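not sure who needs this but someone in the group chat was asking about Small RNA 2'-O-methyltransferase from Chitinophaga oryziterrae so here u go. i didnt clean anything up, its just raw.
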Amino acid sequence: MLLTITTTHNPASDLSYLLHKHPAKVQHAELSGGIAHVFYTEVSEERCTAALLLDIDPVGLVRKNGSSGNDFALEQYVNDRPYVASSFMSAAISKAYSSAMNGKCKDKPELVHVAMPFEVTIAVLPVRGGEKLLQELFEPLGYTIEAERHPLDTTFPSWGDSRYFTVKLRNTLTLQQLLSHLYILIPVCDNDKHYWVGNQEVEKLLEKGKDWLPSHPASEVITYRYLKNQKALANRALEFLLKDEVIEPEEAPEQKIRVHDMRLQSVKEELLQTDAKRIADLGCGEGKLLKILLPVKQFEFILGMDVSYRSLEIVKSKLKFDRMSPAQLERIQLIQGALTYRDKRLEGFDAAVLVEVIEHLDPPRLAALEKVVFEYAKPKIVIITTPNAEYNIKFPNMEAGQMRHSDHRFEWTRSEFAAWGNQVAEQYAYSVTYKPVGEEDPETGALTQMAIFTSNATINGKK
């Protein structure tokens, strides 16, 4: 099995410093099931390619693991493990490229934080879920994908295709980010591991995925597959991934209204000022907004959508779905989905609400969300709230540049939010107004900022 990493960063030879591997040498790392070889196939100022080749000993695997007790008696002898990129490849990445994975570069430390154009080739990768799964795993992280699926047997084309792919991935990011993605997602594609999965794997997942996994649309799929579908371990990991770390002003409890409750009440009040009857809460989380909208008779139908299946289960529990009358159940629906992919279930709503959602997306993915919400779903009204970065200086425990939540990808000033909102409104034929949420400071503005988008067709009386 072979993994190559190519960059055209200038100078491309910087890759050798980041990997801590001299381009003139072939280097080796011993693994539990074989040996990993690291070498370069090309090195120049314009292009550099590092190769990681795994030589797995199939006989050694059988001797080490013994009989596995599977239904297929010869599986320990007849299997694909020595020939495909699997958890063995993740182990090789971790061992051969450990310094790069930990963000260390002795000779050129400034390179660690430099985003470079990378092309990765993996041959071959077993993907239980096909090309669709590859897209769900890698596209939200900004990768473009080329996947060549291999037939089961070229001699017998009628047998169809196998689950094995040669995959090419392209993206511009830091090497540390790239390696963390590969380390986790390669065994996720395979949906298997060659070793015992326990609590230590939860810690690995949280450590390697802390900067990107919480906001990934397929975070639950990734978590379950990485932990070999062990429910107890996966639930423990998801509790940490979904943990809210929002920083709030330090005030006496009796003097303050909870910040998030204040946002939700503001959104509810805006909705009540419209004639909206069908409401979509996009990124509903654990259903706090749904809970306060449900008693309002004006809202005839309410949809809650979230990427997290676990969050939707919490919504059902908190809203006591099992005790709802049939009439109430007809007024509410929960669906799992991502706002970066078109979803016909989001069409036909009077209003859509995104409360503290957009800042959890990487900026390059915002364009996809805009298209999904404003072009495809096309609600009459869209209400969006997001933190006001100018207000952060009022939090005594926040350092300069720190964000309110560990998963925030950005936090905008009022002018930055307005620039984005005005561009979206112009592009998709909406009008937009902005309002503060909470007490407004004359210098910094309010804690939260809100944009209310109204379709120009609605204003003109065409809807």
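also The first strand starts at residue 2 and ends at 7. if thats useful
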